[in-house]
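User: Here's a chain of 353 residues. Predict its fold as tokens.
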Amino acid sequence: MNSLFRHLAAAAVAISVALAGCATTPQPAPDERAVAPAQGALAPGAPIAPLRDRALEERLLALDPLRISDDDVRHVLARGPTPRIMLLHGGIFPVHLLMESFGRFLSRMGYPEARIRDPGEREWSYSPYEDAEKLAGIVAWDYETSGLHPMLIGHSQGGMQAVKVLHELAGHFDKAVRVYDPVRETFLDRTSIVDPLTHKERPVVGISVSYASAVGAGGATFIMPNQWSMLDKLESIPDTVDEFTGFTVGIDLIGGASEYRHNGTAKVRNVALPLNYNHIFVPAVGSLAQVPEVRDWINTYAPGDTRDPSVLPGDAPQHVLWAADVWYSIKKHWCLEAQKLVRAQRAGAPAAH
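Assistant: Prediction complete.
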């Protein structure tokens, strides 16, 4: 165990050195820095404002969720309803900078930054030491205020925390979960929401996310007491997610090799990343979107792609498969959620989920 802690400490130092330039890196252009104001909490049951742009609605509905291009992202999806993405970083300082790198990658690929950052504190990601009930409460709050099911993406302990949130939403820890308002940074005195699509009251328990993924979760991350409750739950994915992807990293002495399975209706994929991937640095992908050749490779990727990423420049071969696979799923569920909301608003009736 002492050897393990030495490895973890060395990894923390390596991250500090590798990301030391973050404090002195030239600031991005103003349009990259711009962040829309945080979304405020609506009154329970308040209607979600429609797009009022029939042409954009038609373009959204015409999209194929399995074939979303860069142009589709920038000129269609980014102009319409956008689900919240909740990033969950690992547990050793300063590993949060790695998920910030992934957040910047998403923003550079065209995902609205305001729908990634926490709406209250404006952080890029959440700690695995946060109360999982709080995170589940944010999922409920955001669905109630947007009409869109959020997505969860976790790395290392953050991956385990993402699965824990799914179990919180399934009621596997407590029979009732409170709504959490991230703008006011407080739990609300209720364990139900008014569904924005059906306009009917429903409990927080049972609310789902559209997509979730975990990379490098398990193994030594179980040594932390806050994760002991996941010993019998990590690999069992409940129905509170439509699609889950679990990534294992080559030879991973920290995260181990988890094999995920559904315990109901969730669609679950297990993806083994190449041996040259590193548990710590998988999410360090911020620069990939800025290299045209790599960006094109990512934008044309689909699961099952047989192209050889080793021909890509720089350190892309050590990150690009994970980044491309997660980005593909994000685009897919972004499109599906937007289409679902548009159809529900047009019909004036509940959207199937």
